[in-house]
Amino acid sequence: MKIVMLSKALVSGAYQKKLEALARLPAVQLTVLVPPAWHEPGVGTIWLERRFTTGYQMEVLPIALNGRHHLHFYPTLGRVLRRIRPNIFHIDEESFNLATFLALRAGRAIGARCCFFNWANNERIYPPPFGWFEQYAFRHAAHAIAGNHEAAHILRQHGYRGPLTVLPQFGVDPDLFAPAPATPTRDGLTVGYVGRLVAAKGVLNLVEAVARLPDTVRLLLVGDGNLRPQIEQRVQELDITARVTVRPAVPSTDVPAVLQQLDVLVLPSRTMPNWKEQFGRVLIEAMSCGVPVVGSSSGEIPNVIGDAGLVFPEGNTDALYNGLALLMQQPALRHALAQRGRARVLTHYTQAALAGAYYEVYQQMYHQP
């Protein structure tokens, strides 16, 4: 079974473990097509990391309109597909994107069975031409994959009637994202956030909550984004500069070392008019590292956390403060949540488990009449 996957997300090295696991499964010949980099709006350029590339082929394609989520595309894709001639073509893009429309046309031209991947979990009617792209995808895709349950519901609402599976895009490698070898000896509590420093992530709520906690509570923020100057200004206004550290984003495979420094990981995302949290990958990374998690109620966060962490109403600084204060006061609760989180990841969110689930989808596509 020849599989080609087209994905800008796979420039990130930590995500590539799933590919190695998939390539080890029976009769799989896997080729992954990636751009040389992806320009993430408001964050910066994410360059291709070749970290886990055993067992499959990785090819770099030129990308046009890099950084335009809905308008980028790959000019040489058709030629590459004609050379490889896959049975299965996994387009790791939303149904309404230009990249998906053009990739579907190229895949259909060689007789490949195609699937797309949707994260979008906010109700929205797409104007032309994006609505046309979406309906084209619905007519011609052999399968759809939704990254969360709300995205699956919206696909059905918008008229998709084909086979549909709910699966996260990527899991974690529990050997890479592992608990620290020994519990660090340190005073107080280190609360952390790892991700984009943008308004939708609610980081200012976290800063406000930590400012109300005792001086023994420190805050570590790791990431880049256009909200950083505002965050640093607010830290100064609250007179907590000595307790807050802001670091630039780190390569994906360095994230475990950051998480292992934390006592609590917080994802305080806030729903925006055109976005809400679609999964919250850093949650499962922290849980895999044995770090208790606190997340807002935005989007898919409560479903990801389950009973393995605390959930507070999004945008509610008082509730976030109360949750952090509870964890500060109850080490036994932190330990219990850490144990539950690790167990939840091992059951549901490892790269190997997800590779097996995707393999089942590809098998269904391959054997479709």
Commentary on this structure:
By secondary structure, the chain is α/β, with parallel strands linked by helices. The chain folds into two domains: 2-171 and 350-366, 3-Layer(aba) Sandwich (Rossmann fold), CATH 3.40.50; 189-348, Glycogen Phosphorylase B (Rossmann fold). The protein is 36% helix and 18% strand. The protein has 13 helices and 15 strands. It has helices at residues 17-23, 77-84, 98-109, 130-140, 149-157, 203-211, 228-237, 255-259, 281-288, 301-305, 317-329, 331-348, 351-366, and strands at residues 2-6, 29-34, 37-40, 44-47, 57-60, 88-91, 113-118, 143-146, 164-166, 189-194, 217-222, 244-247, 264-267, 293-296, 309-312. Strand 13 (264-267), helix 9 (281-288) and strand 14 form a beta-alpha-beta unit. Helix 1 packs across helix 13, helix 3 (98-109) runs parallel beside helix 4 (130-140) and helix 9 (281-288) packs across helix 12 (331-348).
Structure characteristics:
single chain; 369 residues; alpha/beta; Rossmann fold; 13 helices; 15 strands; globular
Termini gap: 16 Å
* Percentage of residues in DSSP E strands: 15-25%
- What is the CATH C-level name of the largest domain? Alpha Beta
Which second-level CATH architecture of the largest domain applies?
3-Layer(aba) Sandwich
Please name the CATH topology of the largest domain. Rossmann fold
Q: Main sheet? A: 7 strands, parallel
The total of helices stands at 13
Number of strands: 15
The proportion of residues forming helix, as a percent range, comes to 25-40%
Rg from alpha-carbon coordinates: 21 Å
